[in-house]
Amino acid sequence: MICNITCLNDGICSFNDTCLCPPCYIGTSCDISVNVIKFSLTYAMYYDSQNNGINSYFNSITFSYTIIIALMLLISILNNLACLQTFFLHDIRSTNCGIFQILYCLTGLITLIGMQLRMLTMLEFDRLTQAYSYRYIACNIIPVLIIATGDTCMWLSALLAIEFVLLERFNWNLYRTRRFSVISSLICLIIIASSHLHEIIARRPLPDVQDPSAYSCTFIYPLPIDIFDKILRTSHIIIPCMIHFFTSLCIFSSMTRRILLLYSREDYFQVFITECIRRKHFFIPPFVIILFNLPHLILHLKDACEDARDTFLLRMHISFNIFVYFPSTITFFIYIYPSKSYMHQFKKTFIGHWFKRIFHLENQKKIRKRMISNDSSV
Questions:
Q1: Cα(194)–Cα(18) distance, rounded to whole angstroms?
Q2: What confidence tens digit (pLDDT) does each residue in 66-90 have?
Q3: How far is residue 35 from each of residues 26, 150, 210, 362, measured CA to CA in Å?
Q4: 119 near 65, Cβ under 8 Å?
Q5: Taking 90 as the threshold, does the pLDDT of residue 1 lie above it?
Q6: How far are the Cα atoms of 39, 103, 141, 155, 206 from residue 134, in angstroms, in the given order?
Q7: DSSP string covering 112-146, please?
Q8: Angle between helices 41-52 and 311-323 (to 10 degrees)
C-alpha cells in the first residue's frame, strides 16, 4: 500500500492515508505522545484539568491541584522554619548532622517554592505566550531545578543516615570536624547538577495534545539519552533508598548485639522494644522516605505505556509524584519530633517558646474548667 503520509513511532498506514497509532500515541502521523510517564508533574496536572474539568468557568480539578501544592508549600515553610531555627542552634550546627539537616531543609523549601512557581506559570501564563525564551525557562529550567533539588534532598537524607551509623555503630565523636558533611555535600551537589545537565540541553517541548498548534512541557529524548536518563532517574531513588535500608539494618543489628551482651534472654524482647522506641529517631526518617518514594520508583521501573487518557492511571502518576515531596514537607515530624534531644533544643527557639506558651495557656484553661466542674459538683 502506498501512503502519502508518514506514520511515526511504529504507526501503521491504513486506508485513506490514515495512521493506526500504537498505544500512547495519537495525531495524524502518531507524533503526539500521551504516555503519562513522559509528562512532567505540572503538565500531568494541566492535562487532567483540561480533559476532566467539568465547568469551564470554575475548574474544580485545577483548583484542587493548586490548593494541594499551596498547602504543601505552607506546611513545608512552617516545618522547615521550625527545623532551621533548631538546627542553627550552636549545639546542633556544630555537628555533621546539623549541617546535613540545615541543607536538607533549605533544599526542601526551594523544591516546594519551585513547584508552586511552576504551577502558577502553568495556570496563568502558559496560554498567554508561546515565546521561545519563556518556554525554555518554564519547560527546561524550572522543572529540572525542582527535580534536582528533590534529588538533593534524597541524597542529603542518605548522607545523614550514614552519619547516624558512624555515631551509633562505630561510636565516632559527635562534635568532630564538620569536614565530612561539607565535602560530601559538595560532591553530592556536583554529581546531581552534572547528572541533570542533559535535561536542560536535550529537553524539547512537544505538540500539545489539546492544541497541536501550541507546545507543552512534555519531553522525549533520543534513544541513547533516553536510556541514560532512565538510569540516572532510577539511581537517584534506588541508591539513597538502599542506603537508608542498609543503614537502618546496621543500627538495628548493633542495637540487637548490644542488648544480647548486656541483658538476659528473659528480658530480651521487652528491652528490645524499649530500645527501638528510644532510638526511633534513627528509624522514622528512613521508613518515611522509603515509603513515599517506593510507589514512584515502581512506576518508573515498570516503564510501560501508561495512557494519559485513562484518568485513573493519570491521577495515580500525579499522586505518586507528589508523594516524593512529602518527606521534605514534614521535616519537623521526621527529624525533630521523634528525638528527645532535638525536642529539648527546639523548646529553646522562638517558635518553640511560642508553642510552649500556647500549650501552657491551653493546659491552664483545662485545669480551670476541671476546677469549676469539681466545685459545681460539690
A1: 43
A2: 889 889 999 999 999 999 999 999 9
A3: 10, 23, 14, 53
A4: yes
A5: no
A6: 19, 30, 10, 31, 15
A7: HHHHHHHHHHHHHTTTT---HHHHHIIIIIHHHHH
A8: 150
